[in-house]
Specification:
Layout: H1 21-56, E1 66-70, E2 73-78, E3 83-89
Antiparallel strand pairs: 1-2, 2-3
């Protein structure tokens, strides 16, 4: 729901898309986790930016991060700048 409340689906554990309710619940957990990662990157970027600019030896006006996964780890990568911020292990 819009207020963040999650409700168990009716139908004996099967969704209208014929997915098990556990699949839907897991997808919702990952969506919430990704939203928290985005909040973290936005909040911490001012702290990371000077280090990134120093490393690249130039000023950065805009970042274009995309979420990625490698070897069980999540990262925010900016392909144009050739950088990636490791965000931690993907929850199981």
């Amino acid at each position: 729901m819009l207020d963040g409340t999650r409700y168990w689906s009716p139908g004996g554990g099967i969704t209208t898309a014929r997915l098990g309710a556990e699949v839907v619940d897991n997808a919702d957990r990952y969506r919430e986790w990704i939203a928290r990662l985005e909040e973290y990157v936005r909040a911490e970027l001012p702290n990371f930016k000077p280090q990134i600019e120093e490393s690249l030896k130039r000023k950065i006006d805009r970042f274009s991060f995309k979420l990625g996964f490698r070897d069980g780890q999540a990262f925010a990568g900016d392909q144009g700048l050739g950088i990636a911020l490791q965000l931690g292990q993907v929850p199981s």
